[in-house]
Design goal:
single chain; extended; mainly alpha; 13 helices; 7 strands; two-stranded parallel sheet; about 290 residues; about 40% helix
Length: about 290
């Protein structure tokens, strides 16, 4: 970081990276995952002081008219919902219709809860269905994974890999290249060939507080299966016991493999630095944020 005295107010930068990035740089030296997360979150959660001042002025102006509590809350709600503090850069970008963000990766959320939120079928379908039909829900991503094509490359594919490397296609996209139909008429998928595989997101549970949900998430994401019954058994009735002690034969193999070995091997591909990040979260909850991190 050595520099000339006249450059003392310049942000830290790297000359070679600056030519490639061609935008502002403000490099900070960090030593651990906590500092990295703290640095990133401090940027995306900056306090909007101007908005707070604006709401204070609205409340102050209302005090002269002596409105009811209901009317006061209504005015504050309108002020909050219709106004937002923006930077000069964002104002210019919106005025000139410039792209506000760009990403090299798409992101997909995978529901893993046993009682995940579901959407019902559209009303036009419900009105034409028989009264005895109980399945009135739209299919979710786990359903589409279980109905993946009956082909060799899909047999030993876990749901994390399926979500990361394939996307659901609709309408005219179904006529594109590398499009495959799902079983049970659940739609079509297409392998991602442009760019990198998608980043997966999912609900995280504490191994100590919610062990069943924690191990259930691991099994659903990283153990190849086509039915929920393949994630438990009469001998191992819980997700935790099945993960720890069960062995299975994957399609195309005659050898029994430990479930935890299969899960951990697949997990390493999608959860980088997972233990360090979880430890960081625990430290944050126990000791509160370290302001000088």
């Amino acid at each position: 970081m050595e520099r000339q005295p006249q450059d003392c107010w310049d942000n830290g930068y790297n000359p070679m990276l600056l030519r490639a990035w061609n935008a502002n740089m403000d490099i900070q030296y960090i030593l651990n995952p906590y500092s990295c997360i703290m640095y990133m979150l401090s940027y995306i959660s900056k306090a909007e002081r101007e908005m707070s001042d604006y709401l204070k002025r609205v409340i102050k102006d209302l005090s002269h008219d002596n409105p009811s509590d209901r009317e006061c809350m209504k005015q504050v709600m309108n002020a909050y919902s219709k106004n937002r503090e923006v930077s000069a850069q964002e104002a210019v970008a919106r005025t000139c219709s410039l792209k506000l963000k760009s990403s090299s990766r798409s992101v997909i959320f995978i529901p893993t809860d046993d009682n995940a939120v579901k959407m019902s079928l559209p009303m036009k379908y419900l009105q034409t269905m028989d009264e005895d039909v109980e399945n009135v829900w739209m299919t979710g991503f786990p359903d589409k994974y279980k109905a993946r094509p009956n082909r060799p490359e899909f047999e030993n594919m876990c749901m994390a890999e399926f979500a990361s490397e394939y996307r659901i296609v609709y309408g005219r996209q179904k006529k594109g290249k590398l499009v495959l139909p799902l079983q049970q008429n659940m739609g079509h998928i297409q392998k991602i060939t442009r760019g990198k595989p998608a980043v997966i997101r999912f609900a995280r549970y504490s191994q100590q507080k919610n062990p069943e949900k924690f191990y259930g998430t691991l099994l659903k994401l990283y153990l190849p299966h086509r039915r929920d019954e393949q994630l438990k058994s009469t001998r191992f009735p819980t997700y935790e016991s099945f993960y720890a002690f069960a062995s299975v034969k994957l399609p195309g193999t005659d050898e029994l493999q430990c479930v935890f070995n299969i899960v951990n091997t697949n997990r390493e591909k999608y959860e980088k630095h997972n233990e360090a990040i979880e430890q960081t979260i625990e430290d944050f909850e126990k000791f509160s944020p370290v302001e000088d991190a």
